[in-house]
């Protein structure tokens, strides 16, 4: 009987858990890609199948493949790798989360410095003396600055994150303190203050708070109400973490994604599409990126909750971690 149980876990339970976890992550990527096609390329979306617009069904059919192909690929990969453990997939997802956070850390660091410098030169009237007047005028438009300054920096940050192995949260926290100190010094000693100075602090602080959440979950650093949890056995804790990930953590991330990106005017997609800025004319042009922070938060937490689910499921299935230190 124990042998049958072991075979059932290896042949059915573990593959089913792997398909569920990897499909959840792939569906997240499909949703983001589908939203991009809807908002930027004016694709009809899957809702066209229930409307009276048959001429658009061909485009919607292609968009349906955005969801079907990744799920099919996940099932194929799981079936082709029966010896892969839950710990292996959990560690893979955690590594991807860390890579994503490293990339956005470098992005907000470099974008913050560059955008603050541009705003400083504009407010002091120096930008027009350093570059072509037409170029200086274009840098005063949020869409131009986002497209030709912020997005290239984001691409560079993705490359830097591949070679870097530090998440940089202590450095970002130190930079936030330094940015706040320079506001105090400039205000009370030199009587100088501009909108971009406060914008930089809010920009970096929002990134620190939202991007560090997934890594804190990985390190078991979030605050728990340990009224009952502390007295649970190891399996009891694993059940609590696994069920909490499935019924609380992952749905919360999907609620953020769907409510924020269901339409063009929603809380995440709206600012991103319009390159929204603050009303202060010479502040930093990064307000739309703050909405993007919610997107990164939801995606990174969804991936990490999925990793957390697999790690605790491995405990429940008595799966031995091959290399606990990793």
The residue ranges in which pLDDT falls below 50 over 5 or more consecutive positions are none
Query: How many individual helices?
Result: 11
Helix/strand order = HHHHHHHHHHH
Helix content: over 70%
> In total, how many domains does the architecture comprise?
2
- In total, the number of strands is 0
Shape: globular
Rg is 23 Å
Question: Sheet with the most strands?
Answer: none
Which class do the helix and strand fractions yield?
mainly alpha
What does this protein look like?
This protein is mainly alpha-helical. It folds into two domains: 1-84, no CATH class; 86-316, no CATH class. It contains eleven helices and no strands. Helix 8 (195-218) runs parallel beside helix 11 and helix 9 (234-261) packs antiparallel against helix 11. The longest helix is centred in the first third of the chain and has 39 residues, at 2-40.
Any key phrases for this structure?
single chain; 326 residues; mainly alpha; 2 domains; 11 helices; globular
Quick gist of this model?
The protein is mostly helical and 326 residues long. The chain has 11 helices and no strands.
Question: How would the blueprint of this fold be written?
Answer:
Blueprint: H1 2-40, H2 57-80, H3 86-123, H4 127-130, H5 133-138, H6 142-163, H7 169-188, H8 195-218, H9 234-261, H10 269-274, H11 287-316
Helix pairs in contact: 1-2, 1-11, 3-6, 3-8, 3-11, 7-8, 8-11, 9-11
């Amino acid at each position: 009987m124990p042998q049958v149980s072991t075979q059932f876990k290896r042949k059915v339970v573990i593959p089913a858990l792997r398909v569920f976890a990897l499909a959840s992550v792939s569906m997240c990527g499909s949703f983001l890609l589908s939203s991009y096609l809807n908002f930027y390329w004016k694709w009809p979306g899957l809702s066209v199948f229930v409307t009276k617009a048959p001429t658009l069904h061909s485009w919607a059919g292609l968009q349906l493949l955005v969801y079907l192909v990744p799920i099919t690929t996940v099932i194929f990969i799981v079936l082709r790798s029966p010896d892969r453990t839950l710990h292996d997939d959990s560690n893979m997802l955690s590594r991807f989360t860390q890579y994503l956070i490293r990339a956005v850390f470098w992005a907000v660091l470099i974008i913050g410095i560059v955008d603050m410098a541009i705003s400083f030169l504009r407010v002091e009237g120096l930008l027009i003396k350093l570059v072509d007047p037409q170029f200086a005028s274009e840098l005063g438009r949020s869409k131009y600055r986002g497209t030709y300054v912020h997005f290239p920096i984001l691409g560079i940050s993705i490359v830097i994150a591949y070679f870097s192995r530090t998440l940089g949260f202590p450095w970002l926290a130190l930079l936030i303190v330094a940015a706040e100190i320079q506001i105090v010094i400039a205000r009370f000693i030199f009587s100088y203050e501009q909108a971009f100075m406060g914008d930089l602090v809010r920009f970096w602080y929002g990134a620190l708070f939202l991007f560090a959440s997934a890594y804190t979950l990985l390190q078991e650093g979030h605050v728990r109400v340990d009224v009952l949890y502390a007295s649970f056995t190891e399996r009891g804790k694993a059940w609590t973490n696994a069920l909490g990930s499935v019924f609380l953590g992952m749905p919360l991330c999907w609620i953020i994604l769907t409510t924020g990106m269901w339409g063009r005017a929603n809380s995440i997609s709206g600012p991103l599409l319009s390159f929204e800025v603050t009303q202060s004319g010479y502040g930093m042009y990064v307000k739309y990126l703050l909405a993007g922070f919610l997107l990164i938060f939801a995606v990174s937490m969804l991936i990490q909750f999925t990793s957390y689910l697999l790690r605790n499921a491995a405990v429940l299935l008595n799966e031995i971690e091959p290399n606990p230190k990793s």
